[in-house]
Design brief:
heterodimer; A: 121 residues; mainly alpha; B: 80 residues; globular
Chain lengths: 121, 80
């Protein structure tokens, strides 16, 4: 395993599998959703709302979906709505971190497949 | 937008560094705030990945890697 790959694994282990205010199951579910390859027309512009499976609050689906596929479209209102529903900023921090890592991983995998001359999914 | 918690919980040293940054530039950059908040959870291991990707590549120069990052950021409409 390369050094970079090992560092990536450490990052995922710490952020997804380590202790936090949200459950490991929730963070895994977010990564699993984020890891679905986006419909890449322009890099970073992906699909719209996709149902998130598992123990992720339904209220968070829209924000997580945006972070995964259209992070540039996240607005203050997206966050404020969740805070007003009683979720904490620490919960949001962990959801967003998990979504970011899931989305990054699928892009990394696509890039590595292209470098190896394989077809992207 | 920025979570307000990113402005809390730092060590004394981090707070001092942030104070200097605010004096010099007016605001703490968002990525730095994210890396510093609960760094054991995300920032520290992510920083290790970032350091390796941006500065320790064997196949690309630092300038080439910076160019790749700038191109990706531009396409993602990331202002930072």
């Amino acid at each position: 395993m390369s050094v970079f790959r090992a560092l990536l694994e450490q990052l995922y282990t710490r952020t997804i599998e380590g202790p936090g205010v949200t459950s490991v199951e929730t963070r895994r579910a977010i990564v699993a959703h984020a890891s679905k390859a986006p419909e890449l027309g322009m890099l970073g512009v992906g699909s719209t709302s996709i149902a998130v499976d598992g123990p992720v609050p339904e209220a968070a689906h829209a924000l997580i979906d945006k972070v995964c596929h259209a992070a540039n479209r996240v607005r203050d209102e997206d966050v404020q709505e969740l805070l007003e529903q009683g979720h904490t900023e620490d919960e949001l921090f962990e959801w967003i971190a998990a979504a970011t890592l899931g989305a990054a991983r699928v892009r990394y995998d696509i890039g590595m497949r292209l470098v190896r001359g394989e077809e992207a999914p | 937008m920025r979570l307000s918690v990113l402005g809390r919980g730092q060590s004394l040293l981090q707070k001092a560094i942030f104070a200097v940054i605010r004096v010099m530039t007016g605001a703490v950059p968002g990525p730095l705030a994210v890396l510093s908040y609960r760094s054991g959870f995300f920032g520290r291991p992510y920083g290790d990945v970032l350091e390796h990707a941006m500065r320790r590549q064997q196949h690309w120069s630092v300038g080439e890697v910076e160019l790749f990052a700038a191109w990706v950021s531009h396409n993602l409409e990331c202002e930072y």
